[in-house]
Amino acid sequence: MHKHHVLRDSHDEDHRDQRIDKNIILAGPPNVGKSTLFYKMTKHYVWTANYPGTTFDLEYGYVKIDGDRLKVIDTPGANLLSPNEPANNIVYDIILSNRNNVVVLIVRAIELENDLAQVIHLVEELDRVILVVNGIDELEDRGYTIDIDTLSNFLGIPVVAISALKGEGIKELILTIEDLIKNNIPRTSRKEIVRLPESVKKDLNFLKKYVEEAGLNLSPKFIVMLELLGYMDKLRYTLGISNETYSLLKNAAENLNKKGTGHLLLRYQYREAKKLVEESILKTRPRSFKSMVLERIDSVLLHPVLGSIIAFLVLIFIYYFVGVFGAGIIVDYLESLFETYISEPLNTFFSNYTPYPIYALIAGEYGVVTLGVKYAFAIVIPIVFFFTIAISLLEDIGYLPRLSALLDRVFARMGLNGRAVIPFVLGLGCVTLATLSTRIVSDSRKQRALIILLLSLAIPCSAQQGVVFALLPSITSLLIWLFVIVSIMLVVGLIASKLYGVPRTGFIMRLPPLSIPSINTIAVKTYTRVKWYFVEVFPIFIIASVIIWIGDILGLFDVVIKLISVPVTTMGLPQEASPAFIYGFFRRDYGAAGLFDIRGLLTEQQLIVSSVVITLFVPCIAQASILAKTMGKKFALAVYILTISVAFTVGIVLSRFLMLLW
Length: 662
Fold this sequence. Notes:
- The chain is of the alpha/beta class.
- Helix content is 66%, strand content 6%.
- It has 28 helices and eight strands.
């Protein structure tokens, strides 16, 4: 009889001294629900947007099973049969580096044939493996069910059906993992799932002696597939194969692939997946009304014309929700409270009872509390809160990958493909994280450099975008801002791709199904992201305020203001806007908050110009650090120079144009 299990928080202090004997590896294609399952198992939240490649690094959490604390590792979503895909290196490495781990392969019920084909070779090879079929409720909405016993018997491994989003089947999965660990019986003989003709088996036997000489517990078939997919080099270091043995093994596998053996293996693997799905998926009832409605909506979202109209309406929704309601009502109220109950009393007290340096540090125009704390709590964090709710809603529905599909043709003109939308969408949350994600988008340094350049130049993070939405006074000004930013991104992208010869690579995006949003999931995402933003950014606001205070005391701040006021006034902005652009050197959302604070002094034309310039402005400190580490200091410096030059040049030209237009 199974014991009752309580899933503990992954940061529970009780876990610190317990020994980890095995790991639980979550792996599978993109958009199968790995990160959602990871959270349900460990209570450790990971960003789980419904677009490929969200989990771009290994995430760790812990789960308690039968008194033992086991580490759960969430790997990047990977098309495991796609050649030379960067994310696959991580997945194959972590899976093959320790055969004592329990590997949970996750597939989607409504994409069972394709997903099974992606993982069957791992099912055949691994010693402790469980197949999880996620989204069983979505399949049932379409009138089908899966015969789990048939699936399990055919594969020769445990199979568990779950709905990660609803939390159904998670306890059964935990119990299945427990059984696999407690029995501690590795598969001494692997079941041949993909049945091959004798001629192919004979060719594979040619490779068998080299595999045995290398001391590898892998089948010749698996080696041939890895060589075909371009992962032999990674395997060499993971398994510690000597140079001589590796050369013999690789040459033998290459010779087989020249005969077409690898392609035959892939073909037979897809064939077996199709046959298995035909035998295990059963029609039980008519399709549900909800499923039909969602499919109809999906076709509208992907329509070139109707989809573009809906994208525009989504933008309008975000503007009114964030800019009008969040900033226009809530932030105005919070600002008023902050001024009345915090800023004014502090200014009065410190100006009367402390010397100027102390007064200027805490209160006054650039004080830590009256500037840094005010901008964080009364302006930026509330706006981030409302913006995050809007984005989390779109993620939960599954809208963002549809937007990716619509944008694929635009990216193609810059030598990019639909996968490039991954960092751009991530950049709407945090441009620094988006910069890191480029390493799984492409192996091409030129493509990565172009994506990072465009991220640094034209993609505002959630905080900055939220403040910009709040800063713009009308839909007209919002559309002008959007048109200018998108135009600059396209122009710079086209020029850069032509100058550097960025190669175009193909990409097929698998769209997750549309779903009805979960209030609980949206609440968790919003809380986690706002909390992360506070922890990461609030100290920067305080440090920036202290640096500005030091500059003010030494008289350097006035000098910098005079220097930056030259391009600022040339853009038709008042000199009072100059400090906001100095704040922007620390963080662009800090600069945007500075502009928001003086919005009453600016006309609509000036608000448009300042919003465009602060959006195109220099990367924040955190992103600049990542730029220098990933692409080199020279590249980071070039991006800094380019973004400042483009921002001020566009601002000057735009101000002249708007003067004529208005």
